[in-house]
Amino acid sequence: MEERIVTTVCGICDANCGVKLMVKEGRVIKVEGMKEHPGSGGRLCPKGAETLDIAYAPIGWESGLHLFGCGEDLCELCPVFEA
Predict the structure, then answer these.
(1) What pTM was estimated for this model as a whole?
(2) pLDDT exceeds 60 at position 83
(3) Helices then strands (H, E): number in the chain?
(4) Which domains does the chain have, with CATH numbers?
C-alpha cells in the first residue's frame, strides 16, 4: 500500500497546531508540523511532537497515575477515570 499525507490539527491541547501525518497501511508512521498552518507555522509542542509515542504506547490510555504527594514512590497506576 502507498504512503499518503493527511493534514489535520493536533487535539492533545487547546492550541490545535496544524500537523501532517504520514500514513502507511492505515497506521500513522510520522508526525510533523504543518508550515502552512496560520497559528502554529510548522511548530509543535513536545506533546504534539510525541504523538506517535502517545498513540501507540503499550499501556495507551487504559491507565493513569494516581499521585499521593511529592517525591519518589508516591504514585501508582490506576484506571484512567480515577487519575
Answers:
(1) 0.64
(2) no
(3) 2, 5
(4) 4-82 (3.30.200.210)
Residues 6+ apart with CB under 8 A from 42: 18, 32, 33, 34, 35, 36
Between CA 49 and CA 56, with CA 54 as vertex, the angle to 5 degrees is 120
Strands 27-33 and 18-24: antiparallel
Sign of CA dihedral 53, 47, 49, 1: positive
Cell 502517545 belongs to 54
Q: Quote the pLDDT of residue 60.
A: 58
What average pLDDT score do residues 42-70 get?
77
